Amino acid sequence: MGVIHLREFLAHFVLFSDPVALQHILVSNGTNYPRKQIMMDYFGDLTLGGGLLGVDGKLHDSYRKMMNPLFAVSKIKSFVDVFNSQTRLYCENYLEPACDTKVPINLANMFTKLALSIVGLTLLGFDFDKSPVALEAYEQSMMEVSPLTLIGVFTIPGFLSFPFPSFVQRRKAQDRLRKIFMQIIHDKLAAFVSKEPKDLLDMILPHATTQEALSHTMTFILAGHDTSSNTLGFVFGTLTSYPDTIAAIRAEYQKVIAHYGSLNSWDAIAELEHTHAVIQQTLRLNAVAFSTIQRTTLDDRVPMSDGSKQFIPKDTNIYIVMAAMHRHSKYWSNPTKFIPERFIEGTPEWNADMRLRGGKSHAFHYMPFSMGGNNCIGQRFAMAEIQLIVATLLSKYDFTPTAKMNLCQEFSGITLKPVNVEMTVRRVGAS
């Protein structure tokens, strides 16, 4: 029926997987459903203060209003050159040697570093590849995920401040990272003159305090590389089972290159329709940002698709699990199948899904970046980046999984990631 009551420890939750209900909770009546405080505290710790993930209400809205223009298409266009140059650099530094040595490479690790290098350069003009100290501090500042740690984080306020040795080491790494980024911020402020901004931090600084700039920096680094790298891992791992799809991506790449000469423009990336559909389909089956937890501030009657209304009392915890919507047989034909064509308008697969939904689009049935005021502000950035990387790498290399490859979903502390994406790499056309 699209709504389930469940209990976790001493707390009661209601899980919704009804599109009409989700539109009400996330958009129409979104102000009545702020994110759960313990979740905001968790993300506030990860982002060294707050940022979009660690605040709600009017402060969140003011941050969002200030930063929305920074992620407009007109701004993202200026970063395509970084997407392209860093992707080609990683081909030279990682994949070409892997072809020569025939030694397997864990693509997940490479994608993490690639996405981090891209977000570092586009966000604050900082090259993580040239600063091993910053890279080490960032890696050590991330939480080591275990079931017991997660239980503590999400049930005990202030748990991350407990004096466990691993927590102490993590806080020291956070302090080192804070000093590095604060120095970048102060250097930019000291050199600030009226000129065209070079990166996102240049655009943020005139409108934010140094602490806010630090939190925004960490928010975009964290969200900007984690989602992209994990999506790439699932895309490449999945495609090893679909050679026809790889062939279609390569044919599309060649067509775009014949017209534009390279992928070094927004218009060229926009022509990668099939590649875009492959990424969308991967995110449908592997929703890396798989859920969100809200809380009602007032009694509410939530409308459902069948015309009924579900009473939700004040202070109820609400689970919205995107993965449940993405695989629901009521809205998707062959819901567990990898069918990229379902995301290409006008195809038989697209039309079959539309008929199931009564002619409605997949909005509120497909939400890899959430919806409403708390949706992912950088989704256009991420999709363009991933499209370019997928098309470029598949145009150059064949990837063969090793016995260690494991595409089971694992929680990274922020999103879902594949357990292992180990591959051998061979140049296209090589014997």
UniProtKB/TrEMBL annotation:
Keywords: Heme, Iron, Metal-binding. One of its GO terms (molecular function) is iron ion binding. Pfam families: p450 (PF00067). Signal peptide: none annotated. SUPFAM superfamilies: Cytochrome P450. Its cofactor is heme. Heme binds at residue 376. Belongs to the cytochrome P450 family. This is Cytochrome P450. It comes from Aphanomyces euteiches. The lineage of its organism: Eukaryota, Sar, Stramenopiles, Oomycota, Saprolegniomycetes.
